[in-house]
Amino acid sequence: MSRDSTSGQEGAALREMEAILGELGWRVTRIPVAGADRYSIFACATDDVDVTLSTHLDTVPPYLPSRVDGEILWGRGACDAKGIAASMVVAAGRLRDAGVRVGLLFVVGEETTHDGAHAANAWIAAHLPARPRVLINGEPTESTLGLGTKGAQRVIVRTSGKAAHSAYPTMGHSATRDLVLLLAELEGIAWPSDALLGDTTVNIGSLAGGVADNVFAPWAEARLMFRLVTPASVVQERVERWAAGRATLEWGVMVPPVRLGVVDGFPTSVAAFATDIPALTNWGTPYLFGPGSIHVAHTNEEHVQVRELDAAAEAYVQLASRARPAQS
Length: 328
Description:
Blueprint: H1 11-23, E1 27-32, E2 39-44, E3 51-56, E4 67-69, E5 72-74, H2 82-97, E6 102-107, H3 115-127, E7 134-137, E8 145-149, E9 151-160, H4 175-184, E10 193-194, E11 198-199, E12 201-209, E13 219-228, H5 232-243, E14 248-255, E15 258-259, E16 268-271, E17 285-288, E18 303-305, H6 306-322
Helix pairs in contact: 2-6
């Protein structure tokens, strides 16, 4: 956590993790990812791996230095997800000592395009003799086992106008006005819902447009993110109908919703956020578990209880020992 690993700038944290794993006796492999000084890390002790513990080492900005205050670890990555990575390293050591064929996969780019996970998914088919049966992914789920996660769909909505002096309305046309009126209609659209995952939600993440106060805006755009509970095509069709020629749409990164494996005795929850799991289909039947709360992730108050990190290490041992592939 003393290394800034904001998405796209993960190199220093990756080298730190490599050093830690090497000192602990793991065989470490770099999985190349596009971009300077960027790669995902796979660590194992045997040629074949049955279960993989995985999370991401990149974080959202801004970087927040770490500190321990009593029993609380503060800073960027405390729960999302460098603290989780630490718990997994401890758990993997215990599993290795118990004779379990375990691997560790730490990826980059989870907070943006999931490119580290996609690279790892392509890499495994060519480099491991047999694919792992189980993948345990780490995200802050308040130490509950995720029954499922919502997906995500990004889209940029753009409107166009005509620049003119704002004192003469007949001479110009405002793209920002068109965009604001269009966005107001989002509240009236019936988005799909799911009995397990809940409602589709939409966030207007950012707005931009225009050139000056006294000029009709020639352009405007809004960046939206939908949290999916159905196939993306269901939401895409409704968005296309909503825009209906009044705006252009640029579809961005999509992560589908997923249902996940469960293990008796673990409390469960449903995650409204997306994860790397849909991009790691070659790594076995997925499970989701992690210490800390998503409600403090991505905030200036990100933190996690140290005792929860300690407990998570043992929880990962239990999950790895009891989780089963879907075909079983």
